[in-house]
Fold these 3 entries.
Entry 1:
Amino acid sequence: MRVNDRTQEFYATVESMLSRRPFNESFGLMSREKNETQFYKIAMGIGKENENTKGKLKKLEELVQQNTLLDDKLPEITQMIQIIKVDISKMSTEINAFQQAFKDKKIPYVMNGYAIENANNIISSLQTKLLNTSNEFKDILELRTKIMREQKLRKEQYSSTGGSLTGSNASSLASSPHLFGSRIMSKIGTPLSRSNTGSPAPPVPDDDDDNGKGKSGSYPYAQQQQQQLYEPYSQSYLDSRSSAIDAIEATMTELGQIYQNFTHILAGQRETIQRIDDDILNVDMNVTGAQDYLMKYYKSISSNRWLIIKILIVVLIFFFIFVVFL
C-alpha cells in the first residue's frame, strides 16, 4: 500500500490559518474601536455644548451686573436668556435620548461589565454637569430679578421725590425756567419748545410779572411740562421691566421642570447605588461568617490531639500497605 506524504500540504494549511487569524482579530478590534468611537463622539458633543453654554452664562452674568438705569441692556439680556434656555432644554433632551438609546442597545458598544459601568459613569457625569449649569443659570436669573426690583424701587423713590418739589426748589425752578428746560432736555433728549406731537409748546411766563403771579404761576406750568415729557418714557420703561420679569419667571418655571426630570433620574441612580451597597454589605457579612467558621474549625482541630493521632495512624497504614504490597 502506497502512502502519500502530505506534510508540506499540512504546513501550508497551517500557515494559511495563522495568516488569517491576525486579520480576523484586527477586524474585530477595528469594529470594537468604531463602536466605542461612536459612543464617545456623542458624549463629547454633549460635553462641548455644555462648555459653550457655560461661556454664554458668564457673558450673561457680566451683562446683568453691568446693567443700570442709564445703560439699559434689556434686549441683549433677554436674547441671551432665551438662547441659554433653549440650549439647556436641548441638552436635557439629548442626554435622556442618549441614555435611552444606550439602554435599548441602539448605540453599538462593547457590552461587558467594565464597559457598561464606564458608559453609565459617563452618562451620570453629563447629567451632573448639566445640573450644575442649570443651577448657575437659576442663580443668574435670581440675581437679575433682584437687580430689577432694586432698580424699580429706586425709580419709584426718584419719581416720588421729583413730583413733590416745594419751597425753595419751587422758587428756584420758577426763577430759572431755562435751567429747568435744559435739565429736561439732558434727561429726555427732546427740545422743550416742541411737544410730543411736534406742535409748538405754550410760551413760558416771563420773570417781569408780579411776585404773586410770576413765581406761583411758572412752577405749575413747569411741573406739568415735566410730567408730560416724563410719563411716556416712564410707562414704557415699566412695561419693559414687567415683561422681562415675566420672561424670567417663565424661564425659571421651565428650569423647575428640568430639575424634576433630573430628580427622577438621580432617584433611580440612588436606588441602584443602594442595591449595590446592600450587596456589598451582604458579601462582607458572608465573608466574615465564613472566616469565623474556618477559625472555629481550625481551633477545634488544633486542640484535638487524639484526632491528629488518628489521622497520623491512617496515613502510616496506607503508606505501609503501599510499600509492602505494591
Entry 2:
Amino acid sequence: MLVVTALVALLRPAGSRVPLYALTVVLALVAAVNLRVDNTRADGPLWSDELDRVRAACTVDDEAIVPITPRDQTPLWLVRVPCDYVR
C-alpha cells in the first residue's frame, strides 16, 4: 500500500491526469485477476454432493451426521442436520 501511495504522489504533480488513471486501471486489473486465493476451503467437497449424502442418510435415520471436512484435513468437522431441513 505504501508503494501505491508513493506512485500516486509521484504522478500527482504532473500536468496530465492520464498516468494516474492508467495506474488506477492497472491496479484494478491486478486486483480483479488475483481475487481468488488457494486455500483448503476451496478444495472441499461440493455442496450438492453433500446434500445427496444427507438425503440418502435421512432415509435410514431421523437425524444425519455429515462430515464436512476439506480433503486430507484433520480433525473431521461434524454437523448434525435434522432431516426436515433437507427434504
Entry 3:
Amino acid sequence: MSSTVTIVANSTGPATAASFTNLTTVQYGLLLPFSIIGTWWRSEFVIAADAVLYGIAHAQAAGYLLGANVTLALADEYSATDSSLRRTVFGVLDLLQQNVSAVIGSGFSDASKASAAITSVVHVPQCSFSSSTADLSFKGQFPLFFRTADTSQMLGRSMTRVLLYYKWQRVAVLTDSSAGTSFVQSAALELTTSASRANVAITMQLDFADESMFATILAMLTETQSRIVALFNVSPVAANLLQFLYGAGWLAPDKAIMGASTYFFMASGPTGIDTILATYLAEHPDRVPLPQYANPSALGGFYRAFGCGYAMTTGLHRLVTDNNSTLDALAARDATLYSAMKLRYFNATSSPFSEYDFTIDTNGDLSAPNMTLQSLVRNATSRAYEFVDHVVLGPDGCALKLINPVVFPNGYVPQDAPTPVLLNPTIHSASGVIVAVLTGLTLLFTLFTVVVFTLRRRDPAVRATSRLSTNLLHLAVLCGVSCVCLYYGVPRAAWQCAARRWLLRLSSGLVFAATLPKAFRVYRLLHSPVGGQPGEWTMVKATATILAVELAAFGAESASPVLPEFVQLDLTTAHVGCYASDQWAVLKVGIVIVVNIGLIVAGLYLTYHTRAIASRYNDSSAVFFSRAF
C-alpha cells in the first residue's frame, strides 16, 4: 500500500507552518507492517503514523523546517503469505522512487537491516522506533540509521543491573524467535556476556518459535531449579508461554520473569509516555484507531514514533541550514546536499515534553537519562493483568536505584535457588586431600611391588606368586587412579561422568577377581607343612574384608541414580553434574575414601600374617610385603 497523507492542522505545529504563504512540500516515507495480523500490533503501527506527524508538528512549532509542508508516504511491508523480506525491499524502493527525503521504519529488526542497507546507499536517513538489534549500531554498514527504540545492548545490560540489584545469582534465558531472530539473539548475547562478567550463572538458555517447545521449557526450568527467568520476545507467543507456565503451577509467587522487547518491557525508556499520548488524545480524540488500546501503557510505541518524527525534522533542518541550502533542494533530494548528510544532525537533545529529553549517540542509538520497569500486577477485582510503571535511575554505567520499588506478590523479593555445587574432591577440600593421600599411597605401593618383583624375579617366593593375580591388581590400580583423576574437580564434559563411573566399576571388579586366586594360594600355604597353622580364621577375616569392601563399592556404584541426560549446571563454564543429587555426590566421595582405607587396612593385616606364616622361606621383607600386596 502506498499513499500520501497531508499533515492535519492543530494547535501546536501546523498553525505555525500555516503562516507561510508558499509552502514547500517535503515528504517522509513511513515503512511499517500496517496490515499485520493481531489487533495489538496493528494498533501500534497504525497509530505510529499519527505519532510521527505529531512529532513533526512539535518540531516545526519549535522552529525547525519552517515553510515546509511535511507529508507522509505510507508503504506496507507486511505479507500474510510471504515470510521473506521482499515486501520490505519493494516497499523502501517504492518510497525512494517517490523521492522521499527520509524514511521512518521498519517495524522489526530484520526488516530494518534490509531497508537500511538500501537507504544508506542513497544517503537517505532512516529512523526506526521498534528495531533493537545490536547489528544496526554498526555504522560502517548503516551510517545514516538511527532509532528511538531501546537497543538490545541496553536491554541486556539493564537486565543484568536488575539481577544485581535484587542479588539474583542464577538466571534462565529464553528467547522467542517466532517473528525474527536479530533482536532476541543480540539481546540474549548481551545479557549472558554482562551477567557472566558479574558472576551470575546462566542455568539454561533455550530458543522457541511456537508452543511445541513449552513442555521442554517447563521440564528444563524444573530440572535446573531455575526461579528467575529473562525472556526476550517479539511476539504474543511469549504471553502464551506465561499462561502455560502459570497453568502448570510453575509460575508461582516465588518465581520472577523479566520480559524484554520493544513493546512489553521498556528498560531504558523515558518517563514522558503518559504525557505525550495523553496530550495527543486530548487534542485528537477521534484519531485513536482502536479505543480499547487507548491505555498509554498499551501503546508504548507512540512516544518512540513521536521521537522519530521530531528527531528527523530537526536533523533535516540542520542539514539545510549548515549547508546553506534550501527546502526545495531538500524536497528534490539534491545530490550535493545529501552527500553532506551526517548522523550527528539527528542528535536531538530536547523536546517539547521535558520528560522526554533524549539523545541519539554516535552509533545512532537512543541514550535515555533513566529507565522504566513495568511490573505486571493482577487486579484483585477483575482478575486482569495491569502494567505498573516503576521509574528507575541508572543510565549506562551507573548503579540501578528504584524510586518506586516493585511490589512482589508475597511482599518479598523472590530468591533464586541455591547454586548447585558438585561436592567432588578438590585439592582445597578435606575430602580431596584424603583422596589424594590415599591414591598416592596406592600408587607408591604399586610401584614398590613392580620394582621388587622385577629385581627379584628369580626369588622362589616371587616365582610362586600368581602372575594373573598380580597383573589384575596392577590393572585395577591403573583404572582406579584414572577414575580418581576424572573424579577430581568439576567435570567439563558428559563423557567424563560415564568414563569415571565405568572405571570405578571395572577397578572394583578386577580387585575382586584378583582376590579369589590370591586367597586360594594363601589358604594352600596355611595348610602346607612349611606354613604351619597360625589360624585359619585370620586369613578368612582378611580375605572377607577385602571382598566385602569391593562388593560394597561395586554395589553402591551400580545402584546410584544417574540422570539420563547430564545436567548442564553453568553454560558459561560448561560444568556438568553426573549424579541426580548432591547427596549422591557426597556418597561417592565417601565410597572412594572407604574403599582405599579398607583395602590398605586389610592388605596390611594380610601382609603381617603372610609374613609370619612363610618366615621359614627366609625371604626379604620387601618380597613378603610386595607378594602380600
